[in-house]
Amino acid sequence: MTVRILAIHGYGGTFGCALGCDALTGLKDGLGSRGLEVEFSAPRSPHATDDGTGVAWLAGDQRAAGKVVGFTLMDEVFTREGCVNTKTPQPLTAADLPALSEEDNIWEGLRGFESSLDLLVREWEGGAFDGLLGFSQGTLMASLLCAHLREARSDLRQPKFIILCAGFMRPWPAAAGAWWPPCPLLDVPSLHVVGERDTIVANCRSEELCGVYAKSVEFRHRLVGHPPGFGGHVVPWPGDPEGEAFLDALKAFLTESCKEAPAASAPLSRPLGVAASEPTAGLVDAVCRDHSFRTAAGARPSSH
Description:
Helix 7 (241-257) packs antiparallel against helix 8. This protein is globular. The model is unreliable at 261-304 (pLDDT under 50). It contains eight helices and eight strands, in the order βαββααβαβαββαβαα. It has a six-stranded parallel β-sheet with strand order 2-1-5-6-7-8, sandwiched between helices. It has helices spanning 23-32, 63-69, 71-81, 113-127, 137-152, 203-210, 241-257, 283-290, and strands at 2-8, 37-41, 59-60, 110-111, 131-135, 161-165, 190-195, 216-221. The N and C termini lie far apart (45 Å). By secondary structure, it is α/β, with parallel strands linked by helices.
């Protein structure tokens, strides 16, 4: 079996990783060594960032996102302490983030969303993909693509799974307001990869993204990538024990999600209302427990 994955990059056109590592190559090689062949296609956004650092699916003013997910506060730390290339600051908690209003859920000042979505729909339509992977800003874009496919393109094959690394679900584009946040919850099996030392996206915002999926599994790690100031804002890589544990869990997740008869698969979800510390059922959870990592479905997004 070869699993085909449409990979959606983060801000600047990146997939965070260790110094000298290519994230997608690491995943491909790590899964291949476990007997699972994967193919990635990673289109590049056509929209340049305002700061000239690369490209972004959601380009334009990034301050609205930075306020909600935390990187605006962390930029202040980097500027004040000059530490982005030397040390990893303490990650932000919910208590560190500013209080938000309903207006903060809408991403004012962004550009490129609708043309980015059109491009990704064309990629999906022509690629015979099984599922999606998103990193950072790409997690929001990948999730919006999932919701759009369900809402407006039911004629196309729907994703069998989605992998979301360092993710968040708000703020969202105003143009997506009719179908985001999704109701009912998205029923695509989702694997949420949360870096406990992520300094760019606060863990509480990644946990909110779990809450828009009905079949969510969470994998937490303590890896630190490059630059050190970004902490665990990464796609895990092979060669490190935590990265190897992630690859075991990822293989189990993909194998379950791509079974020909999904109804025969062990369930990935838990009923809403079960405590987040309770592991979900299935092979993915067993693999994660063996490596002392936690899996859990997320709660619904909190409101401020």
